[in-house]
Amino acid sequence: MAIETQGGEAWRDLDSSTDSITEQAALIGLGSRGCEQLQRLCRAGLENVTAFLIDHDSAARRADDLPVPSYWIGNTETVADFAACTLLGLVIMGVDHQEGSEWLSLRLGLLRERPMLLLGIVLPAAPVVVPRRRPERWRELDSVIEWPALLNPAADLILLRDVVDDLIRALLDPDPLGANFAEMLAVFGDARTVYTASLGVEPAATVAWAPETLDILIGQVTRQGLDPQRTLGLLVVVRGGDAAAGAALRALLEQRLPQGVLLAVAVPDAGNPAAGGVLRVTLFATTAGLAMSNVARRGLST
Prior knowledge:
Elements: E1 25-30, H1 31-43, E2 49-54, E3 70-73, E4 88-94, H2 100-112, E5 117-123, E6 143-146, H3 153-172, H4 181-188, E7 192-201, H5 210-224, E8 231-239, H6 243-256, E9 262-266, E10 279-288
Parallel strand pairs: 1-2, 1-4, 2-3, 4-5, 5-6, 6-7, 8-9
Antiparallel strand pairs: 7-10, 8-10
C-alpha cells in the first residue's frame, strides 16, 4: 500500500512488514522537537512503526533515511495517509509546540484516515524555559502522556523507546491472555491523561515478585501526579514473561482496584518468554481530563 505525498516525496515505499506484526503503528513527529525525538527513537531500534515527520521548517529536513518507512510532511499541501496504521497512532511533540500549520497538516491527515486510538507523548520544556502551552489542541488526541524531564538523555531515550515499544506490542500483537484491542481502547479513550512507569524484574521460578513490583510502579505514577482514587483504567504490559506472570499481576490488580476501574493485561512474549532474561513490566494508568499543569516533573525509574 502506498502513501500519497501530494507536494512532497516519500522517503520509502510502504511495502515492508515484520513477521510478528502485520499492522503498523503511526509514529508522528509534530514540529522540530517531535521530529528529532522520533528520529532518535527509530535509530534506537524502535520497530513496527511507520514514521510521519510533520515539520514545516524546510531547513530542518534530514536527507538520511530512517530504518523504518518514513514520510516528511513539509507543508499543508502534503497530506499524510494513515491507511496502513488503522489501529494506533502516537503523536510526539514538545509541550510548547505552537506552529498552527503543522497542527493543520496533522488534522488533514486524520480527516482522511484516523487511527482508532490516537495518543500523544508530550516532551518537557528545557529546564530554564517556561512553556507556552496550547492544551486545547491536545483534544485532537484520545489520551496524552506528559513525559517527565529526566536527567540522563541517553537513559531517557531508551526508556521512552521501551515504553513506546511495549505499548505498540500490547495493542498490535495477538495476546494469549485474551486482552483485546477493544479492552485497551476503553482504557485509553475519551481525552484522558496517561501516567506511565516501567521496571525491570529479575526472573524467578515463582511470581513472588509481583506484589512488590506493582507497589513500586503504582508509587512511581502516584509521584508523577496520579490520584489513585481517580484512576479510570490500567494497562499492564509484561515483556519477557509467560502467561503466569500476567495472570498473577491481573489477580493482584483485581483485588486492589476499586470497582469500575478498567483493566487490561498484555503479555506479548508469552509464546516465547526470554530465557533467563530480565522481565520488564510497564504500567499505563489513565485519569479523567487532560493535564493542564506540569504534572510530570518527576522522573520514571528503570
